[in-house]
């Protein structure tokens, strides 16, 4: 099956950072881009209209979570994920591999992964055909191939076997029928071993996918090793397809990955941190519960134009947080997602100017990566 993506490489910065654009049936995706995570069909605490105002163009949902307890049928009855999520822009579904491999008492074979959904129930098999079928029925614009995500400390011998298995599964996924509008991305694995990353990249990019992802990072290996693995792998991916770094991450992680040539990012960090009271600013992270904010009348970030910063001071947000008002989680999540959207918009602008490197250095110095 030939790839069908409409992709444009607009500019490559001297650092290697890329400014690209591609099309789905639900709109244009400008990259580098950050994709908010809506694991079970909703981005936590945030309305779709908020995401639209923030400027998000792609959101994620998860195959594993939306396959449990009849949820796939529920999505189908709603008319597909776009209607289910009330989102008329692009949606990407993860294959479920990361969640499955995080489960205890699973059995991994070349056939797929067996695990128990509930005690006393027979084991469930998730395999490439099953993952593709679920994602076809969910109806997302971008579908991810089923892969094996190894722990960061997995031994080389096991990772080598895992790479072989991931390639086998990738070929099986590519052979499955998807809906006419769906794009299929392959995933490069290989752990923290350069030779395995190189082999996986060669094998996965030989399959006619519409885009390519680097998986198996942000699983405990740390910032420096994540950067190293991305630096090895990104140049091995085709120039004329989107490049997606899965599960990354903190702002400093994303900027380093952009510099290494990656286009797409997702992570639960902005919304998870928001619910815990940590907010991102251009001068670094702040804890809204700190006493310094008790009487602070300024917004979270004076340069942010989000709904939260336009209408709420730090002292009011601190009150809402301590009062455990659900509104706080919404306001904090809106702000953090806007911070990420603005960060990636700045990346796009600076790459177009050919000034990404100096801008990144200045940003991180001001931000402090604290």
Average pLDDT level: 94
**Fourth-tier CATH superfamily name of the largest domain:** Queuine tRNA-ribosyltransferase-like
Evaluate the radius of gyration. Answer: 20 Å
CATH class of the largest domain: Alpha Beta
- Write the CATH fold name of the largest domain: TIM Barrel
Q: Could you tell me how far the N terminus lies from the C terminus, measured between alpha carbons in angstroms?
A: 46 Å
Order of helices and strands: EEEEHEHHEHEEEHEHEHEHEHEHEEHHHH
- Number of helices, where a helix is a run of at least 4 consecutive DSSP H or I residues: 14
CATH architecture of the largest domain: Alpha-Beta Barrel
Estimate nothing, just give the exact number of structural domains. Answer: 2
How would you characterize this protein structure?
With 370 residues, the chain is an alpha/beta fold. The chain has 2 domains: 6-267, TIM Barrel; 274-367, no CATH class. It has helices spanning 48-54, 71-77, 81-85, 97-101, 128-138, 156-174, 194-205, 223-233, 251-259, 269-275, 307-311, 314-322, 326-353, 356-367; strands at 6-12, 18-24, 27-31, 33-35, 58-62, 90-94, 107-108, 113-115, 124-126, 142-144, 183-188, 211-214, 243-245, 264-266, 278-281, 284-287. It has an 8-stranded parallel β-sheet. It has a 3-stranded antiparallel β-sheet with strand order 1-2-3. α5 (128-138) crosses α6 (156-174).
Strands, helices and their partners?
Layout: E1 6-12, E2 18-24, E3 27-31, E4 33-35, H1 48-54, E5 58-62, H2 71-77, H3 81-85, E6 90-94, H4 97-101, E7 107-108, E8 113-115, E9 124-126, H5 128-138, E10 142-144, H6 156-174, E11 183-188, H7 194-205, E12 211-214, H8 223-233, E13 243-245, H9 251-259, E14 264-266, H10 269-275, E15 278-281, E16 284-287, H11 307-311, H12 314-322, H13 326-353, H14 356-367
């Amino acid at each position: 099956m030939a790839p069908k993506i409409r992709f444009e490489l607009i500019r490559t910065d001297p650092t290697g950072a890329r400014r690209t654009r591609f099309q789905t049936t639900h709109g244009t995706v400008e990259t580098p881009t950050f994709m908010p995570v809506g694991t079970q069909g909703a981005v936590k605490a945030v309305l779709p209209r908020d995401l639209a105002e923030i400027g998000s163009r792609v959101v994620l949902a998860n195959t594993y979570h939306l396959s449990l307890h009849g949820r796939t049928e529920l999505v189908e009855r709603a008319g597909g994920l776009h209607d289910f999520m009330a989102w008329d822009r692009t949606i990407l579904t993860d294959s479920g591999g990361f969640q499955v491999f995080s489960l205890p008492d699973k059995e991994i074979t070349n056939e797929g992964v067996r695990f128990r959904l509930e005690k006393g129930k027979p084991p469930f098999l998730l395999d490439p055909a099953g993952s593709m079928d679920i994602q076809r029925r969910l109806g997302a614009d971008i579908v991810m191939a089923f892969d094996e995500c190894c722990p960061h400390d997995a031994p080389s011998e096991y990772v080598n076997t895992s790479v072989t298995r991931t390639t086998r599964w990738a070929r099986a996924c590519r052979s499955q029928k998807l809906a006419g509008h769906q794009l299929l991305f392959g995933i490069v694995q290989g752990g923290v071993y350069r030779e395995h990353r190189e082999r996986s990249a060669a094998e996965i990019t030989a399959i006619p996918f519409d885009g390519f992802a680097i998986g198996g990072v942000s699983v405990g290996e740390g910032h420096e090793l994540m950067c190293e693995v991305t630096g090895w792998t990104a140049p091995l991916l085709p120039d004329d397809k989107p490049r997606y770094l899965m599960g990354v991450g903190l702002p400093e992680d994303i900027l380093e990955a952009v510099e290494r040539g990656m286009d797409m990012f997702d992570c639960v960090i902005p919304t998870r941190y928001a619910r815990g009271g940590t907010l991102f600013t251009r001068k670094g992270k702040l804890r809204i519960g700190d006493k310094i904010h008790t009487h602070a009348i300024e917004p979270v970030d004076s340069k942010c134009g989000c709904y939260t910063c336009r209408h709420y001071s730090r002292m009011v947000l601190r009150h809402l947080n301590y009062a455990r008002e659900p509104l706080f989680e919404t306001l904090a999540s809106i702000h953090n997602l806007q911070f990420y959207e603005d960060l990636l918009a700045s990346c796009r602008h600076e790459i177009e100017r050919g000034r990404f490197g100096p801008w990144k250095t200045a940003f991180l110095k001001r931000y402090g990566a604290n």
